Every structure is written in structure tokens, then in C-alpha cells.
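Structure first, sequence second, as always.
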């Protein structure tokens, strides 16, 4: 993680719809992340179970990014901020 990102935190994370989450950061940046392409592509069983929307909605903000069920599925802050989660 680069020095600038080290100083940024996720302030809010709001479920939008499907597998999209709206994120607001401490530097004023906002974006909507769509995690569906990555989740459908991955072969990880621990990720696939979060395709159930009710389970997907159970995320929390951590200092490192977003987390589901104590790091069972997680996305790092830098990838969320830069929207660099694998899409294809």
C-alpha cells in the first residue's frame, strides 16, 4: 500500500443493490464498487457462498478495507479506492 492510501480510511460503506457497495473515504473520495464480476469468476468456495445477497450484505469496515465473517472474504482498501478489483 502506498503512503497516500495509508492515510485514508473508509468512512461509510452502504449496500446499494446486487453486489454493489457505495464507499466514502476520509479524503472525500466516493465510489460504487461492483464485486459481482469477481465473485462469479473466482473458484473460491468461501467467496461463492456470498453470492447469496443476504449473506453478501453482512460486510463490515476494517482498517484494511471491507471484510465478511472475520476475513473469510475481504477486499483491500487500495483496490477498493482505485476500483481495481478484477472485473473479467
Amino acid at each position: 500500500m502506498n503512503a497516500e492510501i495509508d492515510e485514508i480510511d473508509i468512512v461509510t460503506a452502504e449496500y446499494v443493490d446486487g453486489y454493489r457497495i457505495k464507499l466514502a473515504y476520509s479524503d472525500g473520495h466516493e465510489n460504487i464498487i461492483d464485486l459481482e464480476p469477481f465473485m462469479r469468476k473466482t473458484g473460491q468456495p468461501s467467496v461463492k457462498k456470498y453470492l447469496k445477497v443476504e449473506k453478501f450484505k453482512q460486510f463490515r469496515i476494517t482498517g484494511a478495507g471491507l471484510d465478511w465473517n472475520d476475513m473469510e472474504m475481504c477486499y483491500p482498501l487500495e483496490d477498493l479506492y482505485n476500483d481495481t478489483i478484477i472485473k473479467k
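Margin note: Helices lie at 3-6, 36-41, 45-48, 53-56, 77-82.
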